[in-house]
Amino acid sequence: MDETLVEVLTPLIGQAPVINKANTPFSIEISIDKILAVCEKLYKHPTCYFDMLSCITGLDNGKEANTMEVIYNLYSIPFNHHLMLKVILPREKPEIDSVISIWRTADWQEREAFDMYGIVFKGHPDLRRILMPADWEGYPLRKDYQTQEEYNGVTVKYEDRTQ
Amino acid sequence: MSILNLKKTDTAQNLLTSEPGKFNEGELRSEEMIINLGPQHPSTHGVLRLEVLSDGEVIKEVVPHIGYLHRCFEKHAENLPYNQIIPFVDRMDYVASMNSEHAYVLGVERMLGITEQIPKRIEYTRVLMAELNRIASHFIAIGTYGMDIGAFTPFFWVMRDREHILRLLEWASGSRLLYNYMWVGGLFYDIPVGFEDRCKEFVTYLKPKLKELDSILIDNKIFIQRTANIGVLPRDMAINYGITGPMLRGSGLRFDLRRVDAYSVYPEIDFDIPIGEGKMGTLGDCWDRTWVRMQEVYQSVRIIEQCLEKLTKEHKRTKEFDPQALVPKKIRPQAQDLYVRAENPKGELGFFFRTDGRSDVPFRCKARGPSFVNLSVLPEITRGVLIADLIAIVGSLDVVMGEVDR
Known about the structure:
The structure holds two protein chains of two kinds. By secondary structure, chain A is of the alpha/beta class.
């Protein structure tokens, strides 16, 4: 599996991919501009054939690191292969290509990452909030998120009155 | 949104701005209309809102609006130690809590590297409880589905039999639905004295009842006519949409994580994986999905029997056995990313963890709910069907809104 990945990905990303074996499944870091090409190749290549996108995770590394991440968990049903792809984004302007043209399941999962982190998926046809209300302020899962005081006349901020 | 006939009060305005519809009534063609279904509607199985653009009786487009039951699971998880997240995991898929707990503890144990040390008795107990809960969950799916399309009696039958399961689980864990029974590294408590016998009695009682349910609902002519050839989900589309569980198997792919990943003690247990065959219509229709669920109940009964056999003979109760012996006092996994998945009644439940190795709380804990992903295929398979069939299709997806919205 490792050799196939190196063989398939090296011409695409210009160098041999660094496979991080501390993670389960093994992870590879991909740069922002290569993600769509890499995913397309992994989906179509006859010995990789990652036909299932299990999970898209958004992640915020906080103010000090000043980065965000998008993590793709791929799975190949015929070969029983797992792979984790990681993309690191700048925190000021988190933008990444949508993979909806490859896996339709990315539709809602990318909307969720947008909803929670404000990561913009370029090329997504319908990037709206999915779990939070449309007029909610801020992105709740960011590490520096502050709850708004009031939402439509309802107090949001929780005050601990027991102390 | 004139269909709601809201006066332009503040509250009404707030409703429209917080969850606006996708379609603009000004842009509709003369024969089109917008129908709003839910979020409070008995056949949407919870707080699911469907915005339907229809041409008379024929549906042109369905837009699901979700998030009415969002309880910030992932935000809570980032502020809680690993063992305190388990009650929150229970509340995601509230009709199959044992299965969700099983997936979660599996993930944390893998991060700690103690998977191999867990005693077999604990694993068999976990599988026993998870399979009991799988039957309860499939009963809800089959019973409420029958009620959606007009079969009232089977609903009461499955609720009666489900109550027996819930009483068994309550006896073991102390609560009816939200158990907090499986702990990281062990169990809350060993199974109660006499549980195995009662469980055996229940299995003996259940078997003829399943045959009855089969003949009154699954093989019923009216039920077949309402579900066969409706909501056909082709296999390649199912995979592309990330569909898992009985829906994927209903589309004809023999894919069950209990076999594929071979986690826990499932490799030692003998059971079959039923798949849809298109017996009553097209492969992957609503009838196939329901039939697969029904067959899985039979398989779960087989698994329960084998677990009871092991729990009374090979790994039987001893005085020295302590189900909490391996429960770590402090859970602090090494820095890593881990994705774990397990077969829930609805499909693949996945957890993504990132740990930094310095704190007792996860840096990120993402839940990939099978209901969330399975629901996303709804607009695709409802294009061009009749409105009455929309209810049949939504019911056949078997979504639990607690897990869709988390």
